[in-house]
Fold N-Dimethylarginine dimethylaminohydrolase.
Amino acid sequence: MNSVKVQGERWFPSEQTFADEMKELWGEWYCDSEVGKLRAVLMHKPGMEVEGITEENFHSYRFRAPMNADRVRQQHDALADVYRNHGVEVHYVQEQRTDKPNAIFARDLVFMTPEGAIVCRPAIPARRGEERAVAATLAALGVPIIKTINGNGYFEGASAMWIDRETVVIGTGSRTNESGASQVEAELRNIGVKNIIRTEIPYGCIHLDSHMSMVDKRKMLIFPWYVSYDCAKQLLDCGVELIEVTNIHEVEQGMCLNFVALEPGKIVTSTGNPETKGLLEKNGIEVTEVLLDEVMNGWGAVHCVTAFLKRDPIGS
């Protein structure tokens, strides 16, 4: 009997997309908005790195004031409890460096997408290296890492903002350069984002959440003097209603735009911004407040300390 020698394995690759297989092979990780019901977050529990921030050295960390370690831990825990009380799973970054007090601001290190995380690369030298512990934690949790900012690029997570599954705002400025923004844009287009709204982050601001934040599926709170005409026009063309907050003290000192939506029309924000709270409630937004004045000494608030890992799809 003659045998026929067969070359090759005679198999064909799977035609399933990564998104189709993601739940089974990786887990349920997803984000396509700033307001879809929040299910899981990544935070960094303040450790040794927040001790010893004094009058003599706080400027070197880009903080606005010294920080009381015990109070910042208590306030951070209180915010995490608010999340848990609303059914949000809270994960913590593991084995973060103890010389990086800015690592509390986890949002800067991760930008989540429907297919996994983009690991960011901070702009300032004082923060470089924080992303390594974040990448290791994401891998341990089973969150796919679809991109790590590389080359001469730098990009921080709050420099981008989901509007819906097909639309993302990306801002360039002191914390995100053109190379970093282009890397993120390319990755987003690869997973189906069609509309990229590019804007410049004003001098004196570092991230988008200093002057714009989504509060509902088609409602955004903005500080109008920092939002460019072109950006505002594109948002309006997308059907986004712009709610204008004009209390400069609450914007700059109270960080009233630095909040997190728990679900459409329901946010958690810092105490101390009564005018903004009233404006939001007038527009049908439910507001939960948490004291974060010690956290804010690092120039960050609710949004800054929270990296999203899972939100319900915006359409559901």
